[in-house]
Design goal:
Blueprint lengths: L2 E6 L9 H9 L2 H12 L5 H10 L6 H9 L7 H10 L2 E10 H11 L3 E10 L2 E7 L7 H13 L6 E5 L5 H4 L4 E5 L3 H4 L4 E3 L6 H8 L1
Parallel strand pairs: 1-2, 1-5, 2-3, 5-6, 6-7
Antiparallel strand pairs: 3-4
Amino acid sequence: MKKLAVFDFDSTLMDGETIDFFAAALGIEKEVVHITNRAMAGELDFYDSLIQRVSLLKGLPEPKVVEICKNLPLMGGASEVVKGLKSRGYKVICFSGGFRSATKPICNDLGIDADFSNFLHSENGVLTGQVGGEMMYSDAKGDMLIRLQKLLGITRADTLAVGDGANDLSMFAHADIRVAFCAKPILKEAATHCVDIKDLREILKIVDSL
């Protein structure tokens, strides 16, 4: 039986928000964190908040981006949950409204089957403050999930979605198993299950109980 598990990246597979780590390197963490928190709570349009936050990263050197992304902290149980789900017949995918520079190395290390995220634009070795990609909009994850389900021949009944913020609502709309992981209230309301401790292994208990 084919099954699909889709995970958010920031504050789900990874313990923190990638863009906040970038902002800290520029000394503007407080300003960016404030915007991030409002976006994840559903108080700001995700696209607008992303454009606004990335614009503040202008001038960050690419080598610093690479260094930060190599040292991002995994969420507790990340490796175990990916291995556990794959052993239970799941394809494991990562959807991120963040950046490929962060998702690619970690997803490769975790053995995740594919990752979908955005790209930070750079010129002459520094960030320009611009971003592009298919994960920039509030409904992007849901749209991509539908496409993957059709491509893989997997129904929503066999789809697990895990996230923490408002921009995960669109993928929750197309999955029968919806886990709000250390999540904002707006996402908990749409979830079938909530995990309130930073241990992704709890998801294996949920899957095994179904």
